[in-house]
């Protein structure tokens, strides 16, 4: 379609030249000007269509290209209004990008906090499982031994699988 329009534009320009060569004949000068107007209309229409397509893109550089195209035909149709729309669209894209970046930062910080919290929970779980609980059980076994419940104390010391001196304490109970 664009090639056909360029051919038509070129035909109008050539026709205008032909009319200019015979400008004294009847209304040839008027027809030459009319051909130039038609050629410019086709040229501007092509640029306008291209600019409208560029303006529908979501990339800022492509929208800026649309603005440049509209500026090259500033007096054609609603090019001024289209330029304002493109500039507004660029601002909206920038705002959306900033919002996405802020959200990404929030997600990153949240993930770091969550990872830290998970680490603390894992450390607590490990300390509780390997130190605090066995220490309580050991203390319970020592208490049983001290009150003379040696068989029960031996069972509790055996459940500790060698924690502290539980093996020695088993021997002491026997």
Task: Offer a concise description of the structure.
This protein has 174 residues and is an all-alpha fold.
List the helices and strands in order. Answer: HHHHHH
> How many β-strand stretches?
0
Q: What is Rg?
A: 44 Å
Largest sheet: none
First and last CA, distance: 104 Å
Structural class: mainly alpha
Query: Portion of residues in helices?
Result: over 70%
Low-confidence stretches: none
Tertiary shape: rod-shaped
How much of the polypeptide forms β-strand, as a percent range? under 5%
Could you tell me the mean pLDDT?
94
- Total helical elements: 6
Characterization of the model:
This protein is mainly α. Helix content is 84%, strand content 0%. It has six helices and no strands. The protein has helices at residues 2-21, 28-55, 60-72, 79-146, 150-159, 166-173. Helix 2 runs antiparallel to helix 3, helix 3 runs antiparallel to helix 4 and helix 5 (150-159) runs antiparallel to helix 6. The longest helix is centred in the middle third of the chain and has 68 residues, at 79-146. It is rod-shaped. The model has no long low-confidence stretch (mean pLDDT 94).
Q: In terms of topology, how is this protein built?
A:
Layout: H1 2-21, H2 28-55, H3 60-72, H4 79-146, H5 150-159, H6 166-173
Helix pairs in contact: 1-2, 2-3, 3-4, 4-5, 5-6
List keywords for this structure.
rod-shaped; 174 residues; 0% strand; mainly alpha; single chain
